[in-house]
Amino acid sequence: MLTISKMKSFVSSSSFSTLSPYFPITASPSFFSLPSKSPRCSPTFTQVSNYFAFKTPRISFLSTGISSAQNRTGQTAATFSPPSGEIHVIVGPMFAGKTTTLLRRIQSQSSNGRSVAIIKSNKDTRYGLDSIVTHDGMKLPCWALPNLTSFKQKFGQGAYDELDVIGIDEAQFFDDLYDFCREAADIDGKTVIVAGLDGDYLRRNFGSVLNIIPLADSVTKLTARCEICGNRAFFTLRKTEEKETELIGGADVYMPVCRQHYVSGQVVIETARTVVESHKVECRTPA
């Protein structure tokens, strides 16, 4: 008689359901799709549902540096590779097309299927707080904030995680520009496109824009057309008597000029100011 030994049968009872790649969030992120043809077309807003896609962390297996540990333990070591972000800077004088260039790059990124958001300083109220508008009329929705640090909180952590590209306009008004850009690109893997003035009306460093040059993957310096001679304009000449650095205005306050007419214009303005001041003193002097 054949004796059959009884063996325990181990049957896998795992019944894990497939992990849903979506998790609810509390606020709707303000993603939008941009026109793919004419830059002057009005943007088409897309309401994103209250879910964001779960991203699987990228894992790279090291072939060197951990081999001895593998020999001793027989285990394969893994390390999380940091996300790859980018920083691109656009600078130049006023009326050089910095905002237009920024919006076109944002539009291109959106057309390629990447999620985008635009930030501007809430100090700039010339065209309303909820839009970024170029001098030639191109307009897109944006986040108007007092600082960049508050963006992640206001945007929502879940929505921020899904964000691919961040555009920053009028960057000279943000004191926390350096820290925000470094963290967004180096740690969070975002592509950050920054547009702003590299110098004020006295050709001095304006804000923190020049501080992020060492962080940048690319730097683009645009030029305008000198309003006096028509040559390339690298500088911004203030036409009024105000002396504060931050004076928001358009063609009524500023004009792009070449080097020659910047220097001569400054001389004329300073001479005019001296005459006006001396005239005021004479008026105050009792007879």
From TrEMBL:
Keywords: ATP-binding, DNA synthesis, Kinase, Nucleotide-binding, Transferase. Its EC number is 2.7.1.21. It catalyses: thymidine + ATP = dTMP + ADP + H(+). The keyword Translocase does not apply. It comes from the Eukaryota. The keyword Phosphoprotein does not apply. It holds the Pfam family TK. Belongs to the thymidine kinase family. This is Thymidine kinase. It comes from Citrullus colocynthis.
